[in-house]
Amino acid sequence: MPLVYQQNINSNTKLGVWHITETEKFFRQKVMLQKEITHPHKRLQHLAGRLMLKELFIDFPLELIKIADTRKPFLANESYHFSISHCGNYAAVIVSTANRVGIDIEIPQEKIERVMHKFLSDDEKEKLSKLQGLTKQECLTVGWSIKETLFKWYGAGELDFKKNMAINSFEKMNECLIANCTIDKEKKYLLKVQCIIFNGNSLTWLVT
Predict the structure, then answer these.
(1) CA count, 13 A, side-chain hemisphere, 26
(2) Using CB atoms within 10 A of its CB, is residue 126 exposed (0-12), middle (13-18) or buried (19+)?
(3) Is the whole-model pTM more than 0.85?
(4) Are 34 and 53 in contact (CB under 8 A)?
């Protein structure tokens, strides 16, 4: 199945989600595997993410992708800023020629309730619990997804999910939920992460 969700965020930035139903052969006919991955499904996720980069920007130079020590993929010349996330049978990608970006996609799971204390403050849990139309698992998953997006946008690693990142408030904008957030480490950033529930997944992204 091709792109199941696409949004042109601005004139420089595009976002897309791919629902992976194809075989590995399908992807390998279009993009190269750029590193050794032994797990078959993780290979599919990797290939789908790389194909998405080309789907969103046909001139994207896949062969120039490098991996930072933080495991963040990047282009040394920064001709494109991009972020990739995989979860289950979905791959989500955001690409920009001008803006710093981050993206995350997550499937709500029961185990999120057992680990929420590791990444959410009591205040954040309360704010998330007040989100309308979402189950407890979905609310907590949105919280995790927001912080994963902040982490990917930051890009330098070494962020504590509770100490250095905060979800301050929420607001609605059309069909999106906007999380007003802070990253506070050496320098303070005030950021807006956009959130939607898409095909049962929490999809969050950030563009600055």
Answers:
(1) 10
(2) exposed
(3) yes
(4) no
